[in-house]
Design brief:
Amino acid permease, binds magnesium ion, alpha/beta, binds ligand C2E, 12 helices, 8-stranded mixed barrel, 19% strand
Length: 290
C-alpha cells in the first residue's frame, strides 16, 4: 500500500540521514585530529591569476586541500563550512595565512623576477571577528618577512552581512597596513551594493557562475559587463574566476576585465609546479596577442 511504501521510503531516508550525520561527525573528528596532530595532511595549492592585458601572471590564490588518509583529497567545499561551524576555521585560517605568506616570501627570494607577485588568501567571517586578528596578520607578515603589499585578502559578501561594523573596522586597519582587500564570489551572496563604497575594496572577483556562460550562448554577458563597469566607475579592478575557454577569455578582454584565473590558464597547483613556472618566467603573451 501507499502507506507501507511511504514508511519504507521514510526508513530509507532516515537511514541516509543517519549515515550522513555520522559521516559528518567522522569528518569533524578527522579534521580535529588533522588540525591538532597531523598538519601535514593540509596542503596549499596555488592558482595563477593572469593579467588579461599583458598575459603576465600577477600572483596566485592560495587554496587549501586536505589529504585525508582514507578519503584522499577532500575539497575545501566539503570541509571549510564544517570548519566554520565548529570554529576550527580560526586555526586552519592561521595555518593557511602563515603558510601562504612564507611560501610567497620564499619565492620572492628564490626568483628575483617574481618580486611583484602577490598571494591571495581567503578569509572567512569567523576569522575577521577574532579579537586579535589585526595583530595576528601583522605578526605573520613580520615573522615571514612578506611585504604587506604582497598580500591580498579575499572576503565574501556574507562575511560583511554578519557583522558589518566590526568587519569594516578590522578591514580598514588591515588595508591601512597596505594589504589589498578583494571581494570574492561577487554577485552570489545576499548582495547589497551599499557596502561597496564604504569599504576599501581594491578588486571585485566575478564568480565563475557568471563567467560560465558568457562565451557560447552569452546569457550572462550583460551582467558581467555591468559588474566591470560598476567596478571601474568605483576605481576598482575586476578579476574573472573560472575562465575555461578561449571564447570566455576573448569576451572578458572585450569587456576590459583586468585579470582572470581558471583552468584555461592553469588549475591550482602544488608549490613545486609553481616553481617551474617561475623559473621559466612564464607568460601568456602568445595566447592573448590576437
Ligand atoms: P574561491 O575562493 O572562489 O576559489 C575559487 C575556486 O574555483 C577554487 O575551488 C578553484 O579551484 C576553482 N576554480 C578555479 N578555476 C576554475 C575553473 O576554470 N573551473 C572550475 N570549475 N573551477 C575553477 P576550490 O579550491 O575547491 O575552493 C573552493 C572554495 O573553498 C573557495 O572558493 C573558497 O571559498 C574556499 N576555500 C579554499 N581555500 C580556502 C582557505 O584557505 N580558507 C578559506 N576560508 N576558504 C577557502
Ligand atoms: Mg577566493
Ligand atoms: Mg572566488
Ligand atoms: Mg567562487
Amino acid at each position: 500500500s501507499a502507506k507501507a511504501l511511504g514508511k519504507a521510503r521514510y526508513e530509507v531516508f532516515d537511514q541516509k540521514m543517519h549515515e550522513s550525520a555520522s559521516l559528518l561527525l567522522e569528518l569533524e573528528t578527522a579534521l580535529r585530529h588533522a588540525l591538532l596532530l597531523k598538519q601535514d595532511e593540509f596542503r596549499l595549492y596555488y592558482q595563477p591569476i593572469v593579467s588579461l592585458i599583458t598575459g603576465r601572471i600577477i600572483g596566485f590564490e592560495a587554496l587549501i586541500r586536505w589529504h585525508h588518509p582514507e578519503r584522499g583529497i577532500v575539497s575545501p567545499q566539503d570541509f571549510i563550512p564544517l570548519a566554520e561551524e565548529t570554529g576550527m576555521i580560526v586555526s586552519i585560517g592561521q595555518w593557511v595565512l602563515y603558510q601562504a605568506c612564507q611560501q610567497m616570501h620564499t619565492w620572492h627570494e628564490q626568483f628575483p623576477s617574481s618580486l611583484n607577485l602577490t598571494i591571495s588568501v581567503n578569509f572567512s567571517g569567523k576569522q575577521i571577528t577574532q579579537t586579535d586578528i589585526f595583530k595576528q596578520v601583522k605578526q605573520t607578515l613580520q615573522q615571514t618577512g612578506l611585504e604587506p603589499c604582497s598580500l591580498k585578502l579575499e572576503i565574501t559578501e556574507s562575511l560583511l552581512m554578519d557583522n558589518f561594523e566590526l568587519a569594516n573596522t578590522v578591514l580598514s586597519e588591515l588595508t591601512a597596513l597596505n594589504i589589498e582587500l578583494h571581494m570574492d564570489d561577487f554577485g552570489t551572496g545576499y548582495s547589497s551594493l551599499n557596502y561597496l563604497h564604504r569599504l576599501p575594496i581594491k578588486t571585485i572577483k566575478i564568480d565563475r557562475s557568471f563567467v560560465n556562460n558568457i562565451g557560447s550562448r552569452g546569457e550572462n554577458l550583460e551582467i558581467v559587463r555591468a559588474i566591470v563597469t560598476l567596478a571601474h566607475n568605483l576605481n576598482m579592478s575586476v578579476t574573472a574566476e573560472g575562465i575555461e575557454t578561449v571564447e570566455q577569455l576573448a569576451q572578458l578582454q572585450a569587456l576590459e576585465c583586468d585579470f582572470g584565473q581558471g583552468y584555461f590558464f592553469l588549475p591550482p597547483m602544488e608549490g613545486a609546479e609553481v616553481e617551474t613556472l617561475l623559473a621559466a618566467n612564464f607568460c601568456y603573451k602568445n595566447f592573448l596577442s590576437n
